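Minutes, project check-in
Item: structure for the 558-residue chain
Input as provided by the requester:
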Amino acid sequence: MTTPQLSKFAVTLISLLVLLSAIAAAQLKIGSGNTAFADPPVPHPHTTPCVVTLYKGFKFANFNAQSFTYTPPAACPGPWAKVILEANFSVTKGIQYDRTANIWIGPTNIYFGTTSEPDPSDARHWHVERDLTDYSSIFTVAQDGTVDLGNLVNSTYTGVLHGSAQIFFYPLAQDQLPPRTADQVIAFSSGPTGGTVGLNNTTSLLEQTLTFPTNITDLYFDVFAQSQSNDEFWYTCVPNDVAGELFSCSNTAFRESEVTIDGTPAGVAPVYPWIFTGGIDPFLWIPIPGVQTMNFQPYRVNLTPFASLLDDGQPHTVALSVFNANSYFSATASLLLYLDSGSTQISGAVTENTLAVPVPNITENIHVAKNGNLTGAVNTRASHTFQISGYVNTSHGPVTTTVAQDIHFSNLQSFKIQPVLYEQNISQNTTIHSVVTTINAGGHFTNTVNHNWPLKVDISVAYNSDGSGVQTTTINQYYERDQEARHKDQATSFSLLQDRVITTDALDFSPSFSITGNQNQSSAQNYFASNSSGYCYSRDLTAAANVLTSITNGKGCN
């Protein structure tokens, strides 16, 4: 594929990205145990932004959500070239758990992530960004906002969290056309000031029944489903009948978010295995956290084939659930509506829908010797191959959209359990092949997106005679997304994102299972992103003994 010649605007944008990358790199320090991740800043346009401060210097020492007031930037009325959230967090040195953080404008989520755990001798700070351009319509009116970062502080848990957040509104450049953004954003949350909803089991729903605008042409559902409590380590779970003898959580290792419209399957949002900074062994994630741990990315479900159904002026129920949830997933979502300005009433139909509920396939092969030693394997697989089609008669002519997806999940676990040894090895992967075909007056368009999410977790716990021991863990976590758009079978754009974190550690614990130290820790993150506009970003980080040891920028971007 030939890379198109760069415009002056693109060159300027890339030069700014280089500058931003340099600034971000300057915040990383070799030899430091401060939180360090290779994720890039959101690309910022070259126009001068208006900056709206949401809150500054908030202290999070309890479980009370804190409020702020959002006011649109008077000097930068929309439409905007880009809208970017920038948030800064810190935690004082001490003892503290990882915590979940959410920021809301009205009922709409604009940030979802977790925090870094401190230790008694090290405070930590970090910076996150999120591109909110698609959500521009929610920023045109003043609203109450909420930041929810529940934290327990007492004589035992002493780490105090602080945070500030701003939104940058970038005006359009001269002669620049505004980006296409959602005309309406409908939040799925717990109330008018936001809040996630706990989905405790397969039948738990985050839902709304609404009468929609009658001129919808396109719609998308941005889904967050964060594993919590019994489900935090869902990828380590096994079927109920062997959970006890394998000393593991139950309900199998398969979780998947399902989207329905009026009770009919309408879309799938596979669950990414985010691992928090206290997960399995907290030293694994110092200083480099897991993939997206500090800044979750929503999974976008294309519901456009159902536009005509929602255009009929009747109430419809859109719902989100998590298959096999086992108390619980913390969920929120946003429905993005794109409307036809040249029409008040659109007709059409859903012509095909082969999506069905998942049916996991599970095999168990467990052997218990006469001496009580156990070995064996538990394998869980699930898949979807489906196609959903629909058309709408717009003011620009008929438009047909077909969403075809192949989704495959596998979780292969092996166990070795003895009186002085516990081993659990997990090889999991989710692959998603999605092809969206659009036929309209402009011709035949296809957008192909592939996701690949391998996760390998190897845990070995060796016990001493007094009950103390060592837990050795190695984790290989990966996120890959590639996209290609074509028109009349000619490529028009492409993008690639690869993010990988590998980490290992040996955790020492006492007979009472208190952590007494760690050894042989090392980790690395490799992040690479590029697209057909000429953008390229690359950063590799390595760490050892829980401090940053190297930073390599630009590899593969020549």
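Outcome recorded: Helices lie at 8-26, 240-243, 307-310.
No further action items on this chain.
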